[in-house]
Amino acid sequence: MKIDAPKIPENLTEKSFTAIFDQEEPSLEMCLVTDSEFANESVGRVQLYKTVIKNCQLSNTDFSRIDLTDVRFENCDLSNANLSKASMNRVEFLNCKLLGCDLTDSYIGNTLFSESILNMVILSDSKLEKVIFDHTSLESADIFACKLKKVDFQSCNLNGANFEDTPLKDIDISTSTFDSLLVSIEHLKGCKVSASQAVQFASLIGLKIQR
Is 8 in contact with 27 (CB distance < 8 Å)? Predict the structure, then answer.
């Protein structure tokens, strides 16, 4: 599946993340932010446009209602950050850490999570459209009651993830791994799985497979 990549110009202005406060409303546009420390903070609704964030520490910060358009995060730590009610379009998270991150009730579109850690992330009640999770760990992730449209899990760790009340029609998890998974049986129809995963799901509904 092809998704739209961030549209970021080559010539960016170098700034610290605290430059968000230089505007009337917290925002950054056409910026390169490197090695900034912005952990344990609480800000109003932040807007980031056409910006690259690299090697930044953003953990435990309240970014609720954040608006991200054409943004790339590289080697950033957003663990336990509050991104609930976020709006994302054309965003990339490359080698990032979002351990325990709260993304409840968010819209995530044309977004790539690559080689990142999203263990225990909370995505409940969110809408994901044209999203790729690539070589990413979502162990014990809460993906409860989500709307997924054109979402791929490519070689991911899904062990213990909760997909209850989330329809999985046309969702491909065949290259991903898990020992256990929480799903609603009625929403499994049309999910793309491997042969070994089919055996695992069969056991969930009580089928006994003869070998």
Answer: no
Contacts of residue 43, defined as CB under 8 A and 6 or more positions apart, other chains included, come to 20, 26, 61, 62, 63
**Prediction pTM value:** 0.94
- CATH of residue 113: 2.160.20.80
> Helix (H, G, I), strand (E, B), or coil: what is residue 34?
strand
Residue 195, helix vs strand vs coil? helix
Residue 7 domain-assigned (yes or no): no
Q: Which among 187, 78, 179 has a CA at the least distance from the CA of 196? A: 179
Quote the pLDDT of residue 205: 62
- Helix (H) or strand (E) holding 20, with range, is none
- Asked whether residue 72 is assigned to any structural domain, the reply reads yes
Quick check: is 5 in a domain? no
- The pLDDT value recorded for residue 206 is 60
Q: Which domain holds residue 83?
A: 15-204
* Type of residue found at 205: I
Residue 150: the pLDDT is 96
Residue 98 domain flag? yes
Q: What is the mean pLDDT of each run of 10 residues along the chain (211 residues)?
A: 95 95 91 96 92 98 97 98 98 98 98 98 98 98 97 97 96 93 88 86 63 62
In the chain, DSSP assigns E strands to 13-15, 27-29, 31-34, 47-54, 67-74, 87-94, 107-114, 127-134, 147-154, 162-163, 182-183
CB 161 within 8 A of CB 184: no
